[in-house]
Amino acid sequence: MKTHELIAGLTLGEPVFFGGLQVSPILKSEGGVRTEFDLFEAALLAEQVEVTEISDDGSVRELRLLNSGARPVLLIDGEELVGAKQNRVLNVSVLAPPARETLIPVSCVEQGRWGYRSERFSAGKQALFAQARARKSFRMSDLKEGGFAERADQHAIWGDVDSKLRSLKASSATRAMSDGFADREADLAAFEERFRVLPNQVGAIFVLNGRGAGLEVVSRPEAFAGVFSKILRSYAIDALEAPRWSDASAAGAVAADFMAALSASLASQTAGVGLGEALTLRGDGLSGSALTHQGELIHMAAFEEALAA
């Protein structure tokens, strides 16, 4: 199927520019939402969901999620989970069914620890940083064609995290991605102050230094608002190292071109986790994924090849 069917009815708002990062809001008219769900962090606070290692021995690639609530719980691709034996990120987006246990596919972003810091995972403040997430998307697209729909290249992710820590000159005893973010907390706070979510906003296109775009869409404005800070931080940490883009006059065209390329891309169904249907997006110079449920787009993430370079 063509991806344009998934994003029909979405429009671009005026871009906002700060510190080498451009954010163009994606807006949706009211109505049309059918699937009700809770975000992972909100469900944690309500004590309706828990994520643990799958056993005392644990597994780097897989975690156990128990949703004891009455509604599905959404975890988005790249979202960080902190604690237990080592910090992880989601390999794919998961709509975990209510009153059920689900095994979720993850990758490690803390190479130097394999020992319990807590029994259960908590929600991290960010997603996997944008460049690494884009690289993961392109690599996973190739793996999906080989039948490994939920598997990421763990060694490549460790390499990306190590490179990021070195470039940030961040100190981390356990080589944890979160330590790199913590070292630049004041800088990241400036981005969070500058970029705010608009009414009816369900997504955004993020552009680093005029090239290397990425997109995030969640079905409901309140749900997108709930994950916006995590996604923004994942781009802002890369923007701190990007050369400053001085030509803001072409900002809107960059986002529009990426939206057009995404619309022309193809979406093919792959094996999913939990509720809904998982889709892989491939187009000219872009890669991404989407999660739908009963024909409704729940979450989409897509990346331009230049972002992965």
Describe this entry's structure for a reader.
Helix content is 29%, strand content 33%. A hairpin with a 2-residue loop joins β2 (16-18) and β3. The model has no long low-confidence stretch (mean pLDDT 92). The chain has one domain. The strands form 3 sheets. Strands 1, 2, 3, 13, 14, 15, 16, 17 and 18 form a 9-stranded antiparallel sheet that branches. The chain is globular. By secondary structure, it is α+β, with helices and mostly antiparallel strands.
Give a quick precis of the structure:
The protein has 309 residues and is an alpha+beta fold. The protein has helices at residues 40-45, 130-145, 154-168, 177-183, 185-194, 221-239, 251-264, 305-308, and strands at 10-12, 16-18, 21-28, 38-39, 49-53, 62-67, 73-75, 79-83, 88-90, 94-96, 100-108, 121-127, 201-208, 211-218, 266-270, 277-283, 286-293, 296-304. The two termini are 28 Å apart.
